[in-house]
Specification:
five-stranded antiparallel β-sheet; 442 residues; mainly beta
Length: 442
């Protein structure tokens, strides 16, 4: 009799657990993306999840000549196709474009978590091995199409950011900042990369961006966190969730700013010379939190990760607590919306897309995997004011959409954004395996 009672109680508990799971998972957004965007986003109470909301657009690729959809007054064409997971770009002085064909290094970890991660990455188009290659694209006749596509450099380890400084090309591998000599106009580099500084690899957020600082002497290197909220302890996050400042001549460095979960895209504001970045914020607080953001970064800033988000809102999941940091956690300048996966960033100073896009920043939003409904999967523009900061009351303006088809499947996913030598906007599409070029007209 007792055995039957326990079985019945077990079944009742199972039904209750299933009901709770059905009602609370997946978490559905209660706000629009725009409500959680801008200088004063709406920050709701967190809806903490043990099981993350999973809703990632299945990748189907571009079929039958389909392309992304530009905003009114703009037109689009493919700059280069047939690439292998192109993520990041850099324009050389002669107008050639370098593109990092790259992906995450092999991930450690098995079990259920490893299996789920593998399934999600495969569905999102990120399950392919890294080509570990930089390719050169050259549009010699200026028609907006790269007629030359050639291997520029190989033998790298999940390369991402690239920049020139004092005759050296610097490359952000996942585990090191390296450099090689560069001559203007070169179409291939075979020199063995020289180590500048080591970077801590592994875990999540493998991509290492690098840009030259306005001082002409130092570099900024973005190193994302290993985990969501330091759930493996802060020792696993040593020198991560940081922007580093590097003196390449001496191979010295320091932490420039901290508390940045994944500062991927970085750019120098042409008006002020200040450093700006876009940041991917934390997961599993629900579909409305926390907003990814765009912000200026100054030496000594701490944006609160993992203990705080959006300038002091506590994440109660993080242990041990750090109450002393709360009053010093810097509030970002501009929210981009929850889970949009803001990766690409470039200012519009060189762009020639019309007056509407003359003073601001373009942001490549790779798209969410854990929001219902999905967010991102587009390129947006953030208008700036005369102060050198985002304009008051401005919301992100769509520049390039159509990455999701009518069924909600991903035809492509935007990452890096740069301007080309003629003022067009180039967009790297890592699962569409293309670089798109957006220009005025249409």
């Amino acid at each position: 009799m007792r055995k039957h009672i326990l079985i019945v109680l077990g079944l009742i508990l199972l039904v209750i657990a299933a009901g709770v799971t059905y009602l609370a998972w997946p978490d559905t957004a209660e706000l629009s993306v725009d409500q959680v965007a801008g200088k004063l986003p709406k920050i709701t109470d967190p809806r903490i999840q043990t099981i993350p909301t999973v809703k990632v657009a299945k990748v189907v690729g571009w079929q039958n000549g389909a392309m992304p959809t530009p905003a009114a007054g703009l037109k689009i064409q493919p700059f280069a196709t047939g690439l292998d997971h192109p993520r990041w770009m850099y324009r050389l002085p002669n107008g050639d474009v370098l593109v990092a064909e790259t992906n995450s290094p092999p991930r450690e970890g098995g079990g259920i978590t490893g299996w789920v991660m593998k399934v999600l990455m495969g569905r999102a188009g990120a399950g392919v091995p890294s080509a570990n290659r930089i390719t050169l694209l050259r549009d010699a006749n200026g028609d907006g199409v790269a007629e030359t596509k050639s291997v520029f450099m190989t033998g790298l380890n999940s390369p991402f950011g690239m920049t020139l400084l004092d005759g050296q090309l610097y490359i952000g591998n996942t585990d090191a900042l390296v450099r090689v000599p560069y001559t203007d106009g070169a179409t291939k580099i075979t020199a063995k990369p020289e180590l500048v500084i080591k970077l801590n690899p592994g875990g999540n957020h493998w991509a290492r961006n690098v840009i030259a600082a306005a001082d002409g002497k130092t570099l900024y290197v973005g190193v994302g966190s290993s985990t969501n909220i330091a759930e493996n302890g802060m020792d696993a996050e040593k020198y991560r969730a940081n922007i580093l400042q590097v003196w390449p001549k001496d191979k010295n460095w320091r932490i420039y700013a901290a508390g940045l979960r994944n500062p991927n895209g970085m750019a120098i504001n042409p008006k002020s010379g200040g450093l700006w970045t876009v940041v991917n914020e934390r997961d599993m607080l629900g579909s409305d939190l926390a907003p990814d953001y765009l912000t200026q970064v100054e030496f000594g800033d701490n944006f609160g990760w993992p203990w705080y988000y959006w300038g002091g809102y506590p994440d109660t999941r993080v242990e041990p607590k750090n109450p002393a940091l709360q009053q010093y956690a810097k509030r970002p300048d501009y929210a981009l919306g929850p889970h949009v996966a803001a990766l690409g960033l470039t200012f519009s100073a060189d762009a020639k897309l019309g007056a509407k896009f003359a003073n601001g920043a373009f942001v490549g939003e790779h798209g969410s995997w854990n929001r219902k409904p999905v967010s991102g999967y587009k390129v947006v523009y953030v208008p700036f004011g005369d102060t050198g900061f985002p304009a008051a009351n401005a919301k992100p303006v769509d520049v390039l959409g159509g990455f999701l088809d009518k069924d909600g499947d991903a035809q492509g996913r935007p990452v890096g954004v740069i301007t080309d030598k003629t003022g067009g906007l180039l967009v790297a599409d890592d699962v569409g395996n293309a670089i798109w070029r957006v220009t005025a007209g249409g």
